[in-house]
Design brief:
Layout lengths: L1 H10 L4 E4 L6 H4 L7 E4 L3 H15 L3 E5 L1 H15 L6 E7 L16 H4 L6 E3 L7 H13 L6 E6 L27 H13 L4 E4 L1 H5 L3 H11 L3 E3 L15 E4 L4 H7 L5 E5 L20 E6 L2 H6 L4 E4 L2 H11 L26 H11 L5 E5 L4 H7 L8 E2 L9 H11 L5 E6 L9 H7 L5 E6 L4 H9 L15 H7 L3 E5 L2 H14 L3 E6 L6
Parallel strand pairs: 1-2, 1-3, 3-4, 4-6, 5-6, 7-8, 7-10, 8-9, 10-11, 11-12, 13-14, 13-15, 15-16, 16-18, 17-18
Helix pairs in contact: 1-6, 3-4, 3-15, 9-12, 13-14, 13-19
The structure holds the ligand Cc1ncc(Cn2c(C)c(CCOP(=O)(O)OP(=O)(O)O)sc2=O)c(N)n1 and calcium ion (CA).
């Protein structure tokens, strides 16, 4: 049974296995063909997030093999991000011998089909060994259909020795085509609305970047001469941040977001949920007189939104048709962006805005940033010049432990663009073992640790929630250079602009994984 399953994985391009094994997985792994590669991670959270970063950059599915319930459980935190970033991860786990599961012997994954819900789009444990290949095929096609997302398959390890039914071979070349698009009438309605708008605005989300529709979004914004915001809590960057239309990231509070969009009568949201609010700031969902139109490829996003009219449709195709067909507006062209805000560092260490400005100058223009520095977002978006598709990733649910491993997975996926992880000194600890994988597989990712000694974002939230000085807010005294070297990664610690720039240039030239620990200031900028 494992042979035909590997044939199926190969037919779908899934020849990289991200995993951490246990005894339940050995019978599957024993059959792994030579043209497959196994990327070992030392903790299943890191394994899942490495696979996630890999999938986000390739735009393809990625295959994960974990150990029973315990390994699957360790991966669930990472899956909170994958399910909202619509990552098509094929997550599998070894199960105990089929006839012993009910008595719950050691390593039984009890009720495996429900364990991972709602963090997966679909999950199953085949009802018999003969159905393992078809279940795996269903999982792959389900993960990749619009409204993409992770799936989970648990397989009893004695199934692998069973004989595959002859008809299983039909699975290897079957295709499932998702082809829906808006009708001419629906497109016409949208064009009329946009052309009839006095002051339209675009709000773009991660699915625009995921569907490589950034250029279509630019064309639509330019024809409409409309401002563009990125939807709140962005996990990707769908629009060039130095374009005249770009207005930044919308705030994640209901009232704040609504006020930011005041004056716009038609708001077109594309490729984002409506909306991923975060801090609770009650108020009107929309400014008076505004109408919101929502285009998403995820039926769930469309159905659960609390306001606006939604169209479930392919993102790139819809943006391309709208941008092509809409009449160019005679509104005045939008002014070019202001200069970057002035930066500098006063305290001992680098101000985050200063760090990002230095990085903008030292890193390649097509660098890929994987960000998990949760208190420096405003400074990042003000200082960075992101112009290409696939330039930015952030944990889609804010689940920490994504950033460092996802940066490793992203660099494995794309050796032609430098991947730079921007990781807080708190976040780094949740996925730190991925440094070992980067060293082991010689993945030349650069990890910048922003070391402010505290859970800065929580200090920010303590002000919003007025909770004062609670326990557990500081993380002083961690030596990431020693940790990195313990996992086999070259590291350095810096706290001046000159030393940081030198360290970045050295890392870019090194061609091996490198960690740079930067002492940063908190609260000054
Ligand atoms: C798995 C997990 N655990 C805890 C949190 C809670 N959390 C925590 C602990 C944050 C602080 C991260 O601190 P950092 O050092 O990484 O970055 P900043 O200092 O820039 O905030 S932000 C946040 O939401 C989380 N989001 N995810
Ligand atoms: Ca911190």
């Amino acid at each position: 049974m494992s042979e035909v399953t590997y044939d199926l994985l190969r037919a779908r391009g899934l020849t990289t296995v991200f995993g951490n094994p246990g005894s339940n997985e050995l019978p599957f792994l024993s059959g792994m063909p030579d043209d497959f590669r196994y990327i070992l991670g030392l903790h299943e959270g890191a394994v899942l997030s490495m696979a996630d970063g890999y999938s986000l950059v390739t735009g393809e599915a990625a295959f994960v093999n974990l150990h029973a319930a315990s390994g699957s459980g360790n991966a669930m935190g990472a899956l909170t991000n994958s399910v909202y970033s619509h990552s098509p991860l094929i997550v599998t786990a070894g199960q105990q011998v089929r006839s012993t599961i009910g008595q719950e012997v050691m390593l039984s994954n009890v009720d495996a089909g429900t364990l991972m819900r709602p963090l997966v789009k679909w999950s199953s444990e085949p009802t018999c060994a003969e159905d393992v290949p078809r279940t795996m095929s269903q999982a792959i096609h389900t993960a990749l259909q619009p409204g993409r997302g992770p799936v989970y398959v648990s397989v009893p390890y004695d199934d692998w020795a069973a004989e595959a039914p002859a008809e299983t071979a039909r699975l290897l070349d079957r295709e499932v085509h998702g082809a829906a698009a808006l009708s001419g009438g629906q497109i016409g309605d949208l064009i009329d609305l946009l052309e009839g708008a006095t002051n339209p605005a675009l709000v773009l989300g991660p699915a625009v970047d995921a569907d490589h529709a950034n250029a279509h979004a630019v064309q639509l914004a330019e024809k409409l001469r409309a401002p563009v915001w990125i939807a709140p809590s962005p996990s990707r960057c769908p629009f060039p941040t130095r374009h005249p239309s770009f207005r930044g990231v919308l705030p994640a509070g209901i009232a704040d977001l609504s006020q930011t969009l005041a004056g716009h009568d038609v708001i077109l949201v594309v490729g984002a949920p409506v909306f991923r609010y975060h801090q609770y700031v009650p108020g009107k969902y929309l400014p008076d007189g505004a109408r919101l139109i929502h285009i998403t490829d995820d039926p769930g996003e469309a159905a659960r939104a609390p306001f606006g009219d939604a169209y479930v449709a392919p993102i790139a195709n819809t943006l391309d048709v709208l941008a092509t067909m809409v009449t160019a507006s005679d509104r005045a062209p939008l002014a070019p962006p202001a200069d970057f805000p002035e930066v500098g560092s006063t305290g001992s260490g680098l101000d985050p805005a200063h760090l990002f400005a230095l990085l903008r100058g030292a890193a390649p223009h097509d660098a890929i940033y994987v960000n998990e520095s949760t208190s420096t977002g405003d400074a990042f978006w003000a200082q960075m010049d992101l112009s290409q598709q696939g330039s930015y990733y952030f944990p889609a649910s804010g689940g920490l432990g994504f950033g460092l491993p996802a940066a490793v997975g992203a660099q494995l996926a794309d050796p032609h663009r430098q991947v730079i992880g921007l990781i807080g000194d708190g976040s780094a600890n949740y996925g730190i073992t991925a440094l070992w994988t980067a060293a082991r597989f010689k993945i030349p990712v650069i990890i910048v640790i922003l070391k402010n000694g505290t859970y800065g974002a929580l200090r920010g939230f303590s002000k919003i929630l007025n909770t004062g000085e609670t326990p557990g807010l500081d993380v002083p005294g961690i030596d990431f250079v020693q940790i990195a070297e313990g996992y086999g990664v070259r590291g350095s610690a810096v706290d001046t602009a000159e030393d940081f720039t030198t360290a970045v240039k050295s890392a870019l030239a090194a061609g091996e994984p490198t960690l740079i620990e930067v002492r940063t200031t908190f609260g000054q900028s």
